[in-house]
């Protein structure tokens, strides 16, 4: 069961442990470098990628500004098509709704399509507590479940495992969940995939209830969309008698024409494919075709709070492609588990603190799980300025993290304390406002550079314990300019 955020270690402590795991780092380095190279090649094929990216951001921003309208439109369309809509304010309410819906069918087993929203709310654990077993059918999610593990990547939840580890997991644990692994199973990918296929086939053919998420919810028709690469989603969405979809309220888009943009952005950014092998769409129910009952659970769970922040709301554009994880130097070295959330990597560092708040040590540390290099922003298909939001969240943490909603604005309530930091910032402001003092300070630092310590003292140790202090140059840029360009070059 996932560790509650209040009990989970802060990111620096978790990362300090994970970075010592040489196997984990090698698995992550190989996988992320491979995926990022393929993605770059796929994106380069489109001459209008920048325009598509801007269009995706614009559609999402428009939808978020009018989210109440499009959610009501989606509810009406789903209901008119024979579905039932349920609203969940938080994780506990969503768990209760889904548990009740499954119990009403009389079943005690469900199959699941890979879903970040259900991981976010801990649905599998809630169902297990109610005596209901949820079987993950995505290959990577199956590996995680069989290994009693936690996902560590948005697209490839078992990215931290290599082939030998997966073989051992199948051999040791597959029988406990259903059909056992074949005798003599090796770590060849084809054999591992076949073992998973045979194991899951029994679940697909016997399950009466399925649970999914959705990549998109089209407001004008009430159509839900799931894109995937294995076909397990198609099996879950068509074979069971009852389908329950748990969908974050930010997944809604206004119209069918908007899919033309996102169905180009998402596959190239996530799997580096021109299109997903399986794109499944369903609208309510149809007699004799697919599930006879369809339930849509619309999940808030902190999204409305994130929407109130005009900077932070960019995170709600996210289409869960995972491109930011694959280019992030921090994620590559620390791994997904260090983030303590269903959403690892750069997007998790900005989304999780907005959904859960910054009261716990873990959530308050996540905005600092970044070097602010900006690589995540460069690859994001909907242009989320992750570094900007990270700085915004760091401000919130420093100021105390309390946010008050006043009309349509989110106002940060300053906290007491942090006197030393404020004093340092005031001193820096005064220095930059007085050029003579700045020049004198620069000359002093340059002339005493051989006496400078290699580590900072006091609170600065937290920074220099894991970084080398930059070397001070023998002269400032201003002095260099004057020496090489003469008096006329005075800056």
Overview of the molecule:
Residues 71-286 form the LUD domain. Helix content is 49%, strand content 12%. It is built from 23 helices and twelve strands. It has a six-stranded parallel beta sheet with strand order 1-10-7-4-2-3, sandwiched between helices. Strands 8-5-6-9 form a four-stranded mixed beta sheet. Helix 9 (163-177) runs parallel beside helix 10 and helix 16 (345-356) packs across helix 19 (386-399). It is globular. The model is unreliable at 401-414 (pLDDT under 50).
Summary?
Helix content is 49%, strand content 12%.
Question: Topology, please?
Answer:
Blueprint lengths: L10 H8 L3 H23 L4 H17 L1 H14 L3 E5 L2 H15 L3 E4 L3 H5 L2 H7 L3 E4 L2 H8 L16 H15 L11 H18 L2 E4 L3 E3 L4 E6 L3 H7 L3 E7 L3 E2 L5 H12 L7 E6 L9 E7 L3 H5 L15 H5 L1 H6 L10 H12 L4 H5 L9 H5 L6 H14 L2 E5 L2 E5 L5 H15 L1 H13 L13 H4 L12 H9 L6
Parallel strand pairs: 1-10, 2-3, 2-4, 4-7, 5-8, 7-10
Antiparallel strand pairs: 5-6, 6-9, 11-12
Helix pairs in contact: 3-12, 9-10, 16-19
Protein name: L-lactate dehydrogenase complex protein LldF
Organism: Streptomyces zagrosensis
Keywords: 4Fe-4S, Electron transport, Iron, Iron-sulfur, Metal-binding, Repeat, Transport
């Amino acid at each position: 069961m996932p560790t509650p955020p209040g009990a989970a270690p802060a990111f620096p402590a978790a990362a300090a442990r994970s970075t010592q795991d040489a196997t984990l780092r090698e698995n992550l380095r190989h996988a992320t470098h491979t995926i990022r190279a393929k993605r770059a090649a796929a994106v380069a094929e489109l001459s209008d990628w920048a325009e598509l990216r801007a269009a995706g951001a614009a559609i999402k921003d428009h939808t978020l500004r009018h989210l109440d309208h499009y959610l009501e439109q989606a509810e009406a369309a789903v209901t008119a098509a024979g579905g039932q809509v349920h609203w969940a304010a938080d994780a506990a309410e969503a768990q209760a709704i889904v548990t009740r819906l499954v119990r009403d069918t009389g079943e005690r087993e469900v199959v699941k399509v890979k879903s970040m929203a259900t991981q976010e709310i801990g649905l599998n654990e809630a169902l297990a507590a109610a005596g209901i077993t949820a079987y993950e059918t995505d290959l990577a999610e199956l590996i995680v479940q069989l290994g009693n593990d936690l996902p560590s990547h948005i697209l490839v939840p078992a990215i931290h495992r290599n082939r030998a580890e997966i073989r051992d997991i199948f051999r040791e644990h597959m029988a406990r969940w259903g059909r056992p692994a074949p005798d003599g199973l090796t770590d060849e990918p084809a054999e591992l995939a076949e073992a998973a296929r045979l194991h899951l086939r029994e679940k697909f053919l016997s399950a009466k209830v399925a649970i999914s998420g959705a990549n998109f919810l089209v407001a004008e028709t009430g159509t839900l969309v799931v894109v995937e690469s294995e076909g397990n989603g198609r099996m879950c969405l068509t074979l069971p008698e009852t389908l329950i979809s748990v969908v974050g309220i930010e997944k809604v888009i206004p119209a069918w024409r908007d899919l033309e943009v996102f169905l180009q952005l998402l596959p190239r950014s996530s799997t580096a494919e021109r299109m997903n092998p399986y794109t499944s769409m369903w609208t309510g129910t149809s007699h004799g075709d697919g599930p006879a009952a369809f339930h849509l659970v619309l999940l808030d769970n902190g999204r409305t709070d994130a929407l109130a922040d005009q900077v932070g709301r960019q995170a709600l554009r996210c289409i869960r492609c995972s491109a930011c994880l694959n280019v992030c130097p921090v994620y590559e070295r620390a791994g997904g588990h260090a983030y303590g959330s269903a959403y690892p990597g750069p997007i998790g560092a900005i989304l999780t603190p907005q959904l859960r708040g910054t009261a716990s040590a873990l959530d308050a540390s996540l905005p600092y799980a970044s070097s602010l290099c900006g690589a995540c922003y460069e690859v994001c298909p909907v242009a989320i300025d992750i570094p900007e939001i990270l700085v915004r969240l760091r401000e919130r943490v420093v100021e105390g993290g309390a946010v008050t909603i006043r009309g349509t604005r989110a106002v940060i309530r300053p906290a007491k304390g942090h006197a030393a930091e404020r004093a340092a910032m005031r001193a820096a402001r005064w220095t930059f406002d007085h050029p003579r003092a700045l020049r004198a300070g620069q000359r002093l630092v340059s002339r005493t550079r051989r006496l400078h310590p290699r580590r900072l003292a006091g609170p600065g140790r937290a920074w220099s314990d894991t970084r080398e202090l930059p070397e001070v140059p023998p002269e400032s840029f201003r002095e260099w300019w004057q020496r090489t360009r003469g008096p006329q070059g005075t800056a």
